[in-house]
Amino acid sequence: MKNGFRLFLCVILILIYIFVSPLASFASSPRRNISVEPRWGYYVFDTSMWKDRVYSRKYAITGGMKVNLELFRQILQLGVGAGYMREHEPYYYIYNIPVEASLNIRLKFSQQQLIVPYIGGGFDYSYFKEKGRGLDPSGQPMTRIFHNNRKGYHLNAGLQFLLNRFSSSDAERFDEKFGVNATYLTFEARHTDLTESEKPEYSNEDLSGWFYYMGILFEF
Predict the structure, then answer these.
(1) How far apart are CA 10 and CA 161, in angstroms?
(2) What is the pTM of this model?
(3) What is the dihedral sign for C-alpha 197, 198, 203, 207?
(4) Cβ atoms of 27 and 177 closer than 8 Å
(5) What is the pLDDT of residues 13-49, one digit of tens each?
(6) 124: number of Cβ within 10 Å
(7) pLDDT tens sequence across 126-165
(8) Any idea of the CA torsion for 134, 138, 140, 141, to the nearest 10 degrees?
(9) Which of 1, 95, 173, 186 to pair with 210, CA 20 to 30 A apart?
(10) What pLDDT is recorded for position 134?
C-alpha cells in the first residue's frame, strides 16, 4: 500500500499546488481559466471481481479531485484528476487509485447559462492492490499481497448546474473574497476500459467499469 499511497499523495499535492499557488492573486485579477472540482461517487465494476472478493456488491465508494484548464473560450477543457477507493472485511483489503487525463467539450454559450452539458474522453491509469490475512497450510499466520497497474481509456458525459443563478449576491461576495467566478453542481457518468495490464499473468484482473460522480466545480 505504501507505493500506491505515495502515488495518490503525489498527484493530490500536484493538484493542490496548481490550485493554491496563484490563489492569493485570484480575487484581484481577471479569469485565470482554471477550475477545481472535488467530487464523490461510486464505481460499478463490469465484472463480478469486487463482488466475489469482498462484499455481496459490485461497486465501491470513491472520492477525489480534478483540476481543469480551459484551452478555448470555456468550451474546450484539459483535465487531470485522481481518486481513491478502499474496501475491506476484517481480514481482507482492496485498494484502487485511479488517475485520469481527459479532454472535455462543454456546450457553454453564455456566462449565465443554467445547465451546461459536456462530453469527453481521455486516458486512465489505475493502481490496484489487495491484501489478505489468514493461515498457511501449517497453521501459521500468513499475509498475501497482490498488486498490479492497469492502463486504458475512458469516455464521459455530464451536466453542470450553475449555482450562481440561485443567489447572485452570495456569488458576488464569493467572487470578491476568493476569486471564484462561477460555481457549478456537477453530475458525471464515465466508463473506464482498463485493458492493458502491467503484469500479463494477471490480465484477468479486470478493473473496467462505470464511475458515477457528483461534485462541486469552482471556476476561477
Answers:
(1) 31
(2) 0.75
(3) negative
(4) yes
(5) 555 555 444 443 444 445 568 899 999 998 888 876 6
(6) 23
(7) 888 877 766 555 666 667 677 778 889 999 999 999 998 8
(8) -20
(9) 1
(10) 60
What is the grid cell recorded at 104? 472535455
The half-sphere exposure of 203 on its side-chain side, counting CA atoms within 13 A, is: 4
What φ, ψ does residue 10 adopt, rounded to 5°? -60, -45
Residue type at position 22 = P
Q: Can you give the three-state secondary structure of the chain, one letter per residue?
A: CHHHHHHHHHHHHHHHHHHHCCHHHHCCCCCCCEEEEEEEEEEEECCCHHHHHCCCCCEEEEEEEEEEEEEECCCEEEEEEEEEEEEEECCEEEEEEEEEEEEEEECCCCCCCCEEEEEEEEEEEEEEEEEEEEECCCCCEEEEEEEEEEEEEEEEEEEEEEHHHHCHHHHHHHHHHHCCCEEEEEEEEEEEEEEEECCHHHCCCCCCEEEEEEEEEEEC
Query: What are 123's strand-pairing partners?
Result: 101, 153
Out of 2.60.40.10, 2.40.160.20, 3.20.20.390, 2.70.70.10, the CATH code matching 2-13+33-219 is 2.40.160.20
What's the maximum distance between 2 C-alpha atoms anywhere in the chain? 70
CB 11 within 8 A of CB 179: no
- Taken as a whole, the chain contains a residue count of 220
List C-alpha distances in Å: 199 to 102, 127, 147, 205.
25, 12, 9, 10
CB neighbours of residue 80 within 10 Å: 18
